[in-house]
Write a structure and sequence with these properties.
CATH superfamily of the largest domain: Dihydrodipicolinate Reductase, domain 2
Number of strands: 15
Helix content: 25-40%
CATH topology of the largest domain: Dihydrodipicolinate Reductase, domain 2
Distance between the termini: 42 Å
Structural class: alpha/beta
CATH class of the largest domain: Alpha Beta
Strand content: 25-35%
Amino acid sequence: MAVKVGFVGCGGMNRAHMNRIKAMAGCKIVGLCDVDKSRAASAAEEFGGLAFTDHRKLLDTVEMDALFVALPPFAHTDQEILAARKGIHLFVEKPVAVDLATARKIEREILKAGVIATAGFQDRYQDIIAKLRKLLAKTPPGLIMGYWIGGMPGVPWWRRKEQSGGQAMEQTIHTFDMARYLFGDVKTVHATFSKGLMADVPKYNVEDASCVNLQFKSGLCGTIFSGCFLKGYGKVGLDIWCPTVKYEYAGRSQLTVSEAGQAPETVGVGNDFGGEIVRTFINAVKSGNGSKLKSSYSDAVKSLAVVDAANESMRTGQAVKVK
């Protein structure tokens, strides 16, 4: 039987997932929901399934095996909880909530229901990341620096701290998550920030830039920078310094290995990692076994906890233990 799939949120991320599900044998899109009625209707016309503007009506009306949830951070309320209680497996886009308390509440319900739940940290599925993990097993790092420095997304909710959680939470969480995936959990953070460059943007109250110092439980230290004030070229990635080699994961698309005394070697992503995360999730739903998923919902909550601690540090000016 086909895996019956539903969607909450019909924006860009979920539409990409809809395209993948539509092209996948053994899957059927049965229901879609968006607060924008025209967007839900348009997606239903293109991909099939019934259209809704209320996720509760979607879940009460349509029988499904799996649900993709892609919403602005502040909009996560009870969508995942209601789905989990119905035994529906979950694919939730990052960040999984705008604050740690909400995410932990959802996590408890997911664990209680025993459903498979993953988060959309698709970079973990890149072939170059698998290669980097093998290399790091041989060459432990001494220092890391991460970046997500660019411009401001145009959606109005993004510029409101209470709705997006700020850039570190809404965008740079990809970099924080990759650091956790490569180097393990973070013990404490200390964050600083700057404002003032975006005074011409209406209703803007997020940081222009932030610097988050990380102390990992392993003893490793590093810093992750965020910035949304640029009008042109920026930088996204992770630089890793080891005693005899430097690794540069750049643009979420290539890995450069620079060994002492040798010319740097660069390799690009060679696999469809966006498709792979969806296929891995659907296969987990079919088999009832989520062991091949690279980011459980609970693990995504750990990445959120790091950024939540960074936001607390920005508020207080103090170092904060990650909860």
